[in-house]
TrEMBL record:
The encoding gene: acpP
PTM annotation, UniProt: 4'-phosphopantetheine is transferred from CoA to a specific serine of apo-ACP by AcpS. This modification is essential for activity because fatty acids are bound in thioester linkage to the sulfhydryl of the prosthetic group.
Protein name: Acyl carrier protein
HAMAP family documented for this protein: Acyl_carrier
Function: Carrier of the growing fatty acid chain in fatty acid biosynthesis.
Family assignment from sequence similarity: Belongs to the acyl carrier protein (ACP) family.
GO cellular component: cytoplasm
Pathway: Lipid metabolism; fatty acid biosynthesis
Organism: Chitinophaga flava
Pfam families membership: PP-binding
InterPro entries (alphabetical): ACP, ACP-like_sf, PP-bd_ACP
Length: 85
C-alpha cells in the first residue's frame, strides 16, 4: 500500500468517524487538538485503524504521535512491516 493511499484512507475515516473538517487535516497540524480527541476517542481510533489496515495497535504507540504526518508515518511503517511478513 502506497503512502498516498494510506493518507486517503486515513483522512476518509477521520472525517467519517471523528467528524473532522477535511480542511483542518494538514500534515503539520496537531492530531489531538484538531480532532479534539479524548481517551475514548483514541480507543475508537485504534479499532478503526485495525479494521482499515489489518494490524494490531498498541496504545503506547500513540505517545509519539503528535501531528497528522506522525500518524501517517506510523500507519505506513506498520503496513509495510505487515506486508513483509
Amino acid at each position: 500500500m502506497e503512502i498516498k493511499e494510506i493518507i486517503t484512507v486515513t483522512n476518509k475515516f477521520l472525517v467519517e468517524e471523528f467528524e473532522a473538517n477535511p480542511t483542518d487535516i494538514k500534515p503539520e497540524a496537531n492530531l489531538k487538538s484538531t480532532l479534539d480527541l479524548d481517551s475514548l476517542d483514541y480507543i475508537d481510533m485504534v479499532v478503526v485503524i485495525e479494521d482499515n489496515f489489518g494490524f494490531k495497535v498498541k496504545p503506547e504507540d500513540f505517545q509519539s504521535i503528535v501531528t497528522f504526518q506522525d500518524f501517517y508515518d506510523y500507519v505506513t511503517a506498520r503496513v509495510q512491516q505487515k506486508e513483509l511478513v
